[in-house]
Amino acid sequence: MVLPARAAARRAARTRREAGMSLSTGRLAPVDAAAADVGAARAPVAEPSPDRPDRAQRVARAATALAQDAVDALIIERLHGRGLRPTLLKGPVTARRLYPGEYRPRADCDLLVHPARFPAARAVLVEAGLRPCDPSAHAQTFLHPSGHAVDLHWTLPVATAPAERIWSALARHTVEFRLGGTAVAALDLPAHACHLALHAISTPARSQAARRDLERAVARIPLATWREALRVADELGARPAIVAALRTGSPACWRLADLLGLPARVPFAQRLWLADASLLLDARQILRAAPPARRREMLRRWLLPTAAELASWGERPEVRAGTPAVLPPRGRMLWYRARQVVQFAAAVVRASARAPADVLTPAYVPVPADVPVTAGARPVGAAAHSPRRSGAAGIAADMRR
Description:
By secondary structure, the protein is α/β, with parallel strands linked by helices. It is 54% helix and 7% strand. It has a 7-stranded mixed sheet. The chain is globular, with a radius of gyration of 21 Å.
């Protein structure tokens, strides 16, 4: 009988071989359906098991990380083959820099491409067998049948600079990073720290993992590097977001903000973003990110939908969860819109109040680094990370037409 640790090691090796072999195929094939398939490896293998020896669990987690790295490297190599040079934002970069020797679970791969090259990169992922989901205001998620996900960014969340300027600024802050034997471009440490802070504030509905990464960055990254990260944030138009991320964090984040000389009060726009649960701000950002030629049609679809569009709206998870099922499609839409307006008004009141910062965000409870993040809690057809994305999908879905 083969020991579990030895079996997991063999599966990891087989995963790397098969990922390399699939480079010559036309589509991204799942790796080893028995146990090294990316979809199978991400959740069951990474779950802590009390009856499994610690050594076997470490090997199994290493196999999971290797499988993810192999598939991510394969996708990036396919983009390289089309003349595209994406920047790897976090994921394995965060794991290697902030969690050396530890297991850091992840659910997807975040890549940034030049906004003008986004259609070409999107075509590469679709050809590789990944299905596009509804886009958000800054990225679009692509899902493989195995469960592997890629977030393709044309800009960064919360940052206010134009997408082309963000790409140019971050292009000056990239370093070579080895991923599964492939040389990829990744953010340097100051830009990476800046992005971790942006990510912590951009996903308030699911901020535990993002906040944990920010906490680790605050503890490990030197103050001088954080000062450089502030300069990067200024280039991106994201200093208010950095203030909000640190001032709504733990005491360590507050101390860092004090050392950086940041204001104690979070700007109103960021307080409103953190307090809003209506998803109307997401819809506004998506509308601003859309091509000018499409905005009028998108507004028409959102404000005056046809009967078919109403029926499609009624099937969206956020609409079904927030409206009575007995109402007709138009009634459900009106109910949902009224609910959004009420929620937004409440968010404005909360953001205007001089309340403690912890009132604006969900209660932050530090999560141990070895607790895995569930990768499958995302409805089919919705984008990754946060319910904010799917709520604005009534406008966002038009961006892919």
